[in-house]
Amino acid sequence: MTAPTDPFTDVTAVADAVLFEGYLLYPYRASAxxxxxxWQFGVLVPPAAAEDLAEPSRSRTELLLEPRPRAVLRVRVRxxxxxxxxxxxxxxxxxxxxxxxxxxxxGWEEGVVREVHAAIPVDELARHPITLSITGxxxxxxxxxxxxxxTAHGAYLRRTRAIAGHARLTAQPVPGPYxxxxxxxxxxxxxxxxxxxxxxxxxxxxxxxxxxxxxxDTGAFLSSADPPEWAAPAVAGCVNEHSWPVLAGPPGTARxxxxxxxxxxxxxxxxxxxxTDLFDGTENDEILSLRTLALTEAEKREARATDPRxxxxxxxxxxxxxxxxxxxxxxxxxxxxxxxxxxxxxxxPDGRAPLSACSSDRFLAPGTPWWDPGxxxxxxxxxxxxxxxxxxxxxxxxxxxxxxxxxxxxxxFLAGATATVQAVLRDVDGGTHVAVSLDDxxxxxLQATHGRHRYFRPDELEVIR
Length: 465
Known about the structure:
Layout: H1 9-19, H2 47-53, E1 58-67, E2 72-89, E3 97-100, E4 103-106, E5 108-121, H3 122-127, E6 130-136, E7 139-146, E8 152-160, E9 163-173, E10 181-189, H4 199-202, E11 208-216, E12 219-221, H5 232-236, E13 244-247, E14 256-260, H6 285-293, H7 297-306, H8 308-318, H9 322-327, E15 353-354, E16 363-364, E17 386-388, E18 391-393, E19 398-401, E20 418-426, E21 432-438, H10 444-449, E22 454-456, E23 461-463
Antiparallel strand pairs: 1-10, 1-12, 2-5, 2-8, 2-11, 3-4, 6-9, 7-8, 9-10, 11-14, 13-14, 15-16, 17-18, 19-20, 19-23, 20-21, 21-22
Helix pairs in contact: 7-8
């Protein structure tokens, strides 16, 4: 008999990347300063700790779906439960570190994956709310630490504390003739406990990297970032707190949703060149891989002893051959919008190199770096202009941000914000990018001193006259 296909297969890899985002940072050692403060994303702490720590105890996801008759909604709530790993010596005393056969051993906090699954008929959900129980059990295990001769030098005590919570789902009809429903999902940490706990203690009963995968066996979810016109008002009324829903799975499909504490665009995919879970999701895989392989043998031993997942990471990187590293070296992708073909540059009669096919009447002197705007007197981001609705804008112009669909999902939160143009830039393919600073951002001046701006296409801006 053929095993049933997991309906979440197409989103598993991305969901796992969310689950372990920031779990352990390069250089993957417990002694590294970067790993002194962990568990940053999607943390739902017990309610008594929420106010003191300014961290939430619940998340909310709202989105629209168009179910067909007898549709079934599949729900998978996932999070990490913090597991203490305490090191004790042969006499049972807690120790900071023990070295056995040249291998260091020390205490640490690991993450145990917890999941809650449910299959809910949409008709039933439309009649009344459904509540799912979420638990993380209390447990303790002991793993002896022995040398090559079999002599015990201590043990790891691994402990988890009980976690209790729930996920509550409701579905309400959206006014209109389309038969759509507004789905609400609240994921709540109900674990009892006293107020005033330090974060390090509250994390032991927190849901870390909490996120949800939703699947619809028949029908479709609607994009929250780029809904159809008729659904735009209803989507605008959706409330999403500490969770953001995006369509998942292959582009062109709409039966999977990933509700993530990390803002993503619709249909997020792992780069096919990335074959190793590096946990630093925003880092460059090639640079990170090379730096990791450059660790000393002592540093690698510590990394392997820090966490089993770090050991797996090192093993995978050391097994990578030259062909795999070549795959990491560079790939050109678009953001989903139709891209202009890469132009073929021709050398003009005088032999000078063209700047780009989009500005073929402008040429650089021989030997001028194509990547250095300062080397071309005809390019000046501080004074260049761009046409916005037929009006030229330059540094100092006031604009309203109108992010278009298909771009960075975080830009959607800036729709309607006013900004000041800081520079107009053109890339080597002739594209125009307008750098702006937000007018209501108290850190705008500081970011400007570091040259940090937000970038939009001219057609994503509106001139303030």
